[in-house]
Amino acid sequence: MSRVLVTGAGGYIGTVLVSTMLERGFQVRALDRFFFGRHLLADDPRIEVVQEDSRKIRAEHLADTKAVVDLAALSNDPSGEFFQKETWEINCEARVRTARLAKEMGVLRYILPSSCSVYGFQQNGHAVCEGSETNPLTTYAKANRAAEEGILPLGDERFCVVAIRQATVFGYSPRMRFDLAINGMTYGAWKTGILPLMRDGTQWRPMLHVRDAAAAICFLLQADAAKVNGEIFNVGANRNNYQVGPLAEIVIQCLPKQVRVDWYGDPDRRSYQVSFDKIQSLGFEAKFGAREGALEVYQALESGVLQKTPQTITLDWYKELTRWHQIINDVEMYGGIVSI
User: Fold this and answer.
1) What is the mean pLDDT of residues 201-214?
2) So what's the pLDDT on residue 292?
């Protein structure tokens, strides 16, 4: 079994990826700050847990590893705009540094999970492919694109480097997120009978189930290096390009109750359809669509397995941790609060 360093292992994709990798025979060194809790990973001897910030990765973290999946990132546009400096540090600079260090340490493969958001707004209505011009509109998207540019040139005959542009992810995860389109739609419809939808509903989005995201990463960890080295792959499925308005209707049809749409915000400038032919040509096929994901989330909510908590809205939780950090700093003395 090969050991793989997974940064961001405690996150929305990371917790699902670690479980998937164990099923497929990998050993995992799971590195994360664990903002959302260490308990989200299984207590398994094949998982080596390292609590560390990805900006501080050292050579010892890469020792005896065959590959790196560098998931750690401040994830989503609102977080990127609120923490702009940190987004550049974590999503771009730290990843480039880690990739360089991995190469120095003799690691064989490095996978950079980027985002289809680098395509931004595309006017022609055609599905963009990996060779299409990018148009990142937000700090999150710009930092991802810069990371790609910094890491892909590192690939050579001894160091296989792959960038993946993931579609917008959805579905159940131990580190659940309701600030993602399908998940948020499903929660609103289930809780209140009102589905929140950003105007004007004509914008296109590619979608990707979190289990398919994990499966794609495992697929690329084991793919022939000669076919993937130095390459970018869009990760998703052509059938999972949705306009947001019709996507809402799919979610509504999954719930056995009356649901109405509540429009909000200014018209979304981000709109793009994506071609996933390239990764499909290698043999990868995404299994799940919006209907399966919405139904999965609805059933978890209905059964009580899943609840909306402050941790399920990424930016809100970062703000809450920051607030409590300040409170504790203000009152802590001699290494404690009441007990010193």
Assistant:
1) 95
2) 97
